[in-house]
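Support reply, case 0932

Customer input (verbatim):
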Amino acid sequence: MSFTSANVRLSDGAMIHARVLGMEDKHKPLLIALHGAPGLSSHTEPEVSYAFLGDRFRVLVYDSRGSGGSDLKGPYTDERWIADVDEMRAWAGAETFVLAGGSYGGFISLGYALAFPNRLSALILRDVWACGPRAVLRALSFILTSPRIKPDPSRQVRLWSGNVRDKEDGEKALAEILTIYSPPEKDEQEIAGADGFEGASQEMHWETHNSAFSFSSPRFDVRDRLGEIETPTLVVVGRHDPITPVEEAVEIAGSIANSELVIFEGSGHNPPADEPEAFQEAVVKFFVKLGM
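Our regenerated output:
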């Protein structure tokens, strides 16, 4: 089985570049997987991470607006990205579906679960936080004190506050910290630029990133609403993830009643890439338990 490409026109005219596995098999339930890092990442990471589920689901991945091959048409806000998820669901012809989100895609997934609770049959949250302001400061603190890297402090403040000056500024800021997205034992391995960052798109759109981290992230705080989520939820996290660390995942799993937490001891920010077999086993076990 292989993914096929599709261009989806949303209600406001934005064109979304999507990739679909098994779309013709309408009897299969739908799974939508969201990438992280608006403007910097693309569908590539979730496509690789969830292709193994092609025998169980129709798997839909796409570049969010302002990312990858999709239109650079705002607004670049969580509310708009959440609405886009539901339009993609409708385009795929599913009344209910499984939503999987990693990193920033997990923030959007939490927002969707609260806005459209009756649409979800299951939720997968990979390396996610529930409070943007606290988590950004925690990540920045780690970055500026980690012995593994020596970044420029002012440049990192611009990156994490959504004030990147230009393409060169952003690329330098990202290159400085790529190493810490992987577990410590991978320090000596070559990380080839953007290829080490969550399936990054070849062309990064810093306006999208700046909007997400200057407007949406400071306002994102769903801690007091996590208890409203009744959807069966799998929360996964890498033990060595400094960006969305284990304590963030523990908080989320502890607040969602119908949830389970899996910690991957050999992973950083992306367990599907760091421990693919263990990740796939955990996901399949979750779905078997749900009878899916």
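We compared this against your earlier run and they match. Two observations from our side: Residues 139 and 148 are 14 Å apart (CA to CA). Confidence is low (pLDDT under 50) at residues 188-196. Please reopen the case if you see a mismatch on your end.
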